[in-house]
Amino acid sequence: MYTDFTQMPVYQKAEAAMKAAYELAGQLPNTEKYAMSAQIKDAALSITGNIAEAFGRQHKKDKLNFYYFSRGSAQEVRSHIRSAVTVRLLEEHQVEPCNKLCLEVVEDLNRIIKSLSS
Asked: Of the CATH numbers 1.20.1440.60, 1.20.1740.10, 3.40.50.300, 1.10.238.10, which one belongs to the domain with range 5-117?
């Protein structure tokens, strides 16, 4: 058992994904500072924040909800960075590491959710 959410491998991966997302957001033009960049950052922060929130909850249903929120935020980051590629603000090779990390977080969260649901 973990005594702190920072010890959880899924949190550590989520932190790496958040950092990668922030780096991508920083590469966007200044015209996107309050639009796409802010959306990417907000979603990325929600991945880690919701994992931490789930860790602090006592009831299984509460924990599950926050793990679901975290999973949704990881998918949201993937969508936003994909959009940046679509509108040619970033290149595919730039977003791939972040996309991969987000997918790993989703997979890890799916395992946690499944274990709590059974």
From this structure: 1.20.1440.60
